[in-house]
């Protein structure tokens, strides 16, 4: 099995599982990640696999993200333009179906190419042979990467802390402002409806310089 | 260095090229591994990881500054600059390193980290809800799409937003399938778009210059554009549309030099897909994409006519055809509405500038907003300094390129874009043209990034640095400066461009949170206005026609689900209903003609000047020229007026129902 076949099957499986989880409302805290993969990664990756584009990793990531965004947008456009109207679940189904179909196409093309050319087998054997050595090298290599990964993780954690702190600050200040507003509130009696209740509230509000809050009724 | 040493990435030369292109167009070992974890020179941890931590700590400091600002601390406006300067200066110093000391992946990581850091800086400003005006208008369109399931709804305040629903479609898809709130989905979407923009820019600059160092400095110059920090980080259609547009250009830049026909076709198809997605996302961005592609095709044809190694023009032509077709189809779908929206803006800018230049019109005094906190003198100096520096860098680049042709067709096109910069500055001399000039930054800076980046990268090339075409063509040949001095000079120039750009593009009242101000977008979103808007959502029929001041109008639209009316009806400005000292016959005529159902009044309009120059919109009497605040009678005139009934009052904001809304003509 070629790397392209394996990649195609993996992308198809992840897309199918993600779509199933989204449909069933499963996934818990992982659900946003699955949704992100469905919207920003998987359709484009399937497209790259189906088209057989070979790029350096950073270019492949750029291309697949751009293609995913474009695919999601155009799918959403088509669905929103249809009679049934826009629904996130429908977009999910279309994206997942398209992703699986593209991956199946890529896998079939790759398998057919493998049968006729059989070029990947020596490479696969070499890769398997190198696997043991690579594992040993990876341990040393991993230690070297650990500090880099640790720094990135620390940066992510500190950034998350900054966002959390800012959110806390904004919410606290808004809450304090609301409390000040609430303390000055002049609320009409429960269930009061209509102009009379509003006029009463208005009169009360005008009686105090700070004004007040009413619960008015729609005309 | 001569043109013969320019890169061959636009020809049919082998892609595994030597020099600056090595490893960029074909997977080298570090590319396949993704990262060697240690940067180019084997140092570990990778410099980008340490830089990421520095950015994170800077953001933590910025969160503290924002908190101080919310508490009313006076120093916050000054302290705001410190974390931004630290993260930008550190990136500039790092990217100024010699080509061989920092590989392409590391440079890209630093740029992406900086791009994301600047985006998070905007998020920290409003971390719990959308507060910028374009965000509120986008939110309204997205909520309409969620409620109706159909496109092309009516957005009374920003008609074009509903006609270009790209950002709404993806944000809503993400929100619905992830279970995240629309606010979080919008933030994630624009964050992803920001990363795509940075990576795509790097790829475009690389294709134009062929050198990673010059390309990375070019991207850094792009980040100094006045809109990068705030405007292009908003949850808005333009912020999003830049991603597919620049993505399409980046993919074309990969397709053009590709030697394998299958690969070229596949990349062209992906680029076309991305370009097609731009058309329903943002009008001007899709038009700019088409223009750049057309110029690129023309430049390639001219280049092919002169050279023995012709380059395939087909990818550019194919994507151009896809873009033009998508624009035409989308314009056919949305009808004349786009031109109705754009014509007054662009036409008004052109007319006002022409009138000013011929002495028939009045100019706009810079840094003059009576109702808003003023820029400090040092900030004003930085703003002028950044403009003058850019003009000088542009002149230096263009003078050099006059003797040596741009090394690539794409470089020629981008240089042409850069040459528009001085013209775009002319628009800033009038009130009507200032916004158009500001909005041109995203595209003009594509060219400035190339030209200014090329000049700046030659401040000190250092011994043994690989040649790159743009740098060699744009800078005088002389002995390199002492390294430390050159780095300090480069960092200083970049900081002036960066901070000056922020001052030019964003008013001081909107840079940090703080005490509420009148009609100042993010600083005006506060509890009284929000309470009134939420009450309206709960108690008033949706899509009711009303008139309100600018901020209450935005909130009534985004959170109240109402349709605030702006502009004029029968040549009478709707804003006069709010600003007039008494509710007279003219006001009643406007209410009748505009078929208004409600009037929203904020008591705080009396006694304060509007920070952004208008109480309602630019059609109101004395728009942008208010020198005295509204009188108290302007906000009390509705009490007891015949035909009006008070239905809501929270002490600051009141809502009056028009009891017998008569039939009348539509507003614009």
Structural summary, described in words:
The complex is a heterodimer of chains A (219) and B (668). Chain A has 219 residues and is mainly α. Chain A has helices at 3-24, 31-40, 42-51, 57-81, 88-117, 120-183, 194-207. In chain A, helix 1 (3-24) runs antiparallel to helix 5 (88-117). In chain A, 38% of the residues are buried. Chain B is mainly α and 668 residues long. Chain B is 58% helix and 4% strand. Chain B has 28 helices and 7 strands. Chain B has helices at 29-33, 47-70, 76-79, 81-95, 104-125, 133-148, 159-163, 166-178, 182-209, 212-222, 237-255, 261-278, 283-306, 314-334, 337-357, 377-403, 409-418, 421-427, 431-439, 441-456, 469-474, 483-505, 508-511, 527-539, 550-558, 575-579, 585-593, 633-636; strands at 545-547, 563-564, 568-569, 572-573, 598-602, 644-649, 653-658. A 5-stranded mixed sheet of chain B has the order 2-1-5-7-6. In chain B, helix 2 (47-70) runs parallel beside helix 5, helix 9 (182-209) runs parallel beside helix 11 (237-255) and helix 24 crosses helix 25. Chain B is globular, with a radius of gyration of 26 Å. In chain B, 61% of the residues are buried. At the A-B interface, helix 2, helix 3, helix 4, helix 5 and helix 6 of A face helix 2, helix 5, helix 6, helix 8 and helix 9 of B.
